[in-house]
Amino acid sequence: MTATLAEVCTITMGQAPNGQSYNDRGEGLPLIAGAGDFDGLRISPKKFTTAPGKVSEPGDIILSIRASIGAKVWSDGEYCLGRGVAGLRPRAPLDSGYLWHWLTHVERALAAKGRGATFLQVNRGDIGEMPIELPPLPEQRRIAAILDHADALRAKRRQVLAHTESLPKSIFFEMFGDFPATSTVEAEASLIRTGPFGSQLLHSEFVDEGIAVLGLDNVVGNEFRWGERRFISTTKYEQLKRYTVRSGDVLISIMGTTGRCVVVPADIPPAINTKHICAITPKGSRIDSTFLRAAFLWHPGSLAHLRRQTKGSIMDGLNMSIIKAMPIPVPPLEDQQEFAGKVERVTACRRAIDRVAETDEQLFASLQSRAFRGEL
Questions:
Q1: How far is CA 213 from CA 32, 35, 82, in A?
Q2: Which end of the chain is less enclosed by CB atoms within 10 A, N or C?
Q3: Could you report how far apart the first and last alpha carbons of the chain are, in Å?
Q4: Closest-CA residue to 71 (of 42, 45, 31)
């Protein structure tokens, strides 16, 4: 049996309450205005309203219909549905668990219906007209149970991945959290430099291949990644050689998303950095690169310095003076190297888990497709 969603589901479109009724004191009902009020699969409201219009019930699925179209959470109580969401309440012969997984399966198709000049959104018709295949209720429940189990396995893998991502910070605090910051970046670096400014490097001088140019996209995740590939010619590189980045350098973002920090990997090809990045070459006899990155990200004394120096800044940015003066600890080099070895092992483990997690996602998508084609 095939039906449209509107035929088997009550669709309650959200409605913005009177603005004067909003508050953050917990008075009235929590307001769900969009996916920004979702925290993963849980609801995390930021505002409340004493004049709710449209209200969800426990067991409803709250669906984002604006911006992050298709994101969803279960309603575990009464919530005021704002303009950016809709409440879905299945009616017989539609099982709620089956609907939940079907919405995941059609998320891209629903998002493709989005339209609007300021932001994309879908309306009641876009949602309600979507066709849904309805096997008998016992079969729907069987399919939902299988997908629930597979989804739980994916969630456990993500939890393990999240744990490995936080482990280096925990190791750093265990080994060096109480170690005093008795030196500075300038004292422990053999070279500190930012990239070329202004007319030294124009966007029009980028070419399809040659010497790599590293920017914010290479450091934004606090782990070196190849983002957008940019190159300059070997001739241009001869003019900019003093900005060369080498394996083991520590890169820090000083514009845009500031304070992101990575170590340049061993397999880096010839490259320079842009003006948005500060490159530090540590004195190898005193400071390990992995340790310096960790100190920059997590050491209390280093972070306190950055907060003091950037507080009240007109621009959201760091500069060379702030970085040079940043206090850092200098524990024995063998301890730093022990820390670096532990981080390397954790990173290798995380990457292996990440590859398995990617396979999980592919297998789950395949399982969903089979389920809703009646092949499960």
A1: 43, 36, 45
A2: N
A3: 17
A4: 42
DSSP sequence for 122-184: --HHHHHT-EEE---HHHHHHHHHHHHHHHHHHHHHHHHHHHHHHHHHHHHHHHHTT----EE
Sign of the Cα torsion 47, 50, 53, 56 reads positive
Distance of CA 71 to the CA centre of its chain: 15
Hey, how many other C-beta atoms are within 10 angstroms of the C-beta on 228? 9
Structure tokens at 284: 């190898």
Distance CA 372, CA 376 (A): 8
Helices (H) and strands (E) in the chain, counts: 11, 22
- The answer to whether the CB of 332 falls within 8 A of the CB of 175 is no
What is the distance between the alpha carbons of residues 37 and 63, in angstroms, rounded to a whole number? 11
Q: SS3 for 312?
A: coil
User: 3-state SS string over 72-134?
Assistant: EEECCCCCEECCCEEEEEECCCCCHHHHHHHHHHCHHHHHCCCECCCCCECCHHHHHCCEEEC
The two beta strands, 22-23 and 85-90, are unpaired
* Token representation of residue 115: 């339209």
Pairing of strands 29-32, 47-49: antiparallel
List per-residue pLDDT tens for the chain, 376 residues long.
899 999 999 999 999 888 788 888 888 999 999 999 998 888 999 999 998 999 999 999 999 999 899 999 999 999 999 999 999 999 989 999 999 999 999 999 999 999 987 889 999 999 999 999 999 999 999 999 999 999 998 888 888 988 898 999 999 999 998 999 999 999 999 999 998 987 888 888 999 999 999 999 999 889 899 878 899 999 999 999 999 999 999 999 988 778 899 999 999 999 999 999 999 999 989 999 999 999 999 999 988 888 887 654 444 568 888 999 999 999 999 999 999 999 999 999 999 998 998 998 899 889 998 988 888 8
